[in-house]
Amino acid sequence: AANGSFVKPGILIERDGKTYFQAQVTSWNMIESLTYNGKNVKIVSENKKQNSAVIEMEITGDLSDEILLGMSLYYGSQPVSHNARLILYPDSKKLIENDDDVDFGSGGKGGQTPLIPSGGSGTKGQPSAAEKSDKIQADRVFKFNYVIYKADANEPSAADQFFVKPGYLLEKNGKQYIQLYINGWNFMNWLKLKETNKHVDVVKVEGNRALIQFEYNGDLSKEIWLVMNLTVPGVYDKETYEARMVIDQASIEEIDPEGHYIHLAKPDFGDPEKDEKAGAKNTTNNPKTGDTSQVLFYTVLLIASLIALVYQVRKQLATSA
Fold first, then answer.
1. Which of 129, 118, 132 is nearest to 206 (CA)?
2. Strands across the sheet with 11-15, in order?
3. Segment 40-98, tens digit of pLDDT
């Protein structure tokens, strides 16, 4: 699962006769420490807004050699140790001509860490809602603070740190929609509302940060129960976890709706040509049910029609003779 936090491609830099490898790492607030072959990585730059960092390590051996990574991941009250192997693919190496693109943060444009999309979708293996949606301007928008509490205790859940504050409530045509940003999306296999058992809509994914949306027309003073399926190295392996979202009523504040959009999923009508072929295939390959009553009825009807036809023909021939 840690693989999803390392943004591809990485960059090789030759400097002062030495070779260095740089990579952007997302969900940075989860990582307490990160080492390679027993040495601490160098943190070139951090981007708190995107919850990412650019790290650097010196390559002393062959590019094809495995690099042993050791990381201490913060998830819950205690850090969890996790080991992994970093493997570079020398055959994919490509020279970069533009100096601005040489690295993420030590050079380039003003030392800024760019956001490099990972190409992932919201729900793993499926397109995000933004790829199949219409967006409409909200009539009213409210921002609010909230806490993700444990299901069985009045204390913040370990997942709370990944839910970015504030959240937003958007209103349109008498309906309400809640939108939240979530960091560490690569650890989230799915997320849904317990009351409706419906998955949230994933509006967009940038790196390992996702904007999710769900319709909620209930009382904001009540708890909103969430169900999530997580995979966190050394902690969870596709485990389902429940939590309670509690909105701070005193923090609710109306803001300018400009730039806040509600994303409505488009209906999937499918491929007409493909559907037509599938329909034709189904009509010629209906399963046998063993019910022959309909076949017998039409057979008798056909025989009766043929007898009547023969009778009429013979009658006309006799008359003409």
1. 118
2. 11-15, 18-26, 52-59, 42-47
3. 999 999 887 778 889 999 999 899 999 999 988 765 555 678 888 999 988 888 887 66
Q: Which residues of 126-144 are buried (b: 16+ CB within 10 A; e: fewer)?
A: eebbbeebeeeebeebbeb
CA 186, CA 130: separation in Å to the nearest integer?
Answer: 18
Residue 59: name the closest of 131, 10, 111 by CA.
10
Task: Tell me the Cα Rg of the chain.
Answer: 31
Q: What is the dihedral of CA 41, 47, 49, 51, to 10 degrees?
A: -20
Q: Domains, the chain, ranges and CATH?
A: 2-101 (2.60.40.1850), 129-265 (2.60.40.1850)
Cβ contacts of residue 7 below 8 Å, gap of 6+?
23, 24, 25, 26, 52, 116, 118, 207
SS3 75: coil
Rounded CA-CA distance 153/157 in Å is: 9
Helix (H) or strand (E) holding 98: none
Q: If you ran DSSP here, which 8-state letter would residue 2 be given?
A: G
Using CA of residue 136, residue 168, residue 197, residue 4, what is the dihedral sign? positive
State the pTM of this model: 0.54
pLDDT digits (tens, 9 = 90+) for 300-312: 556 666 666 655 6
Q: Which residue reads 């990412």 in tokens?
A: 52
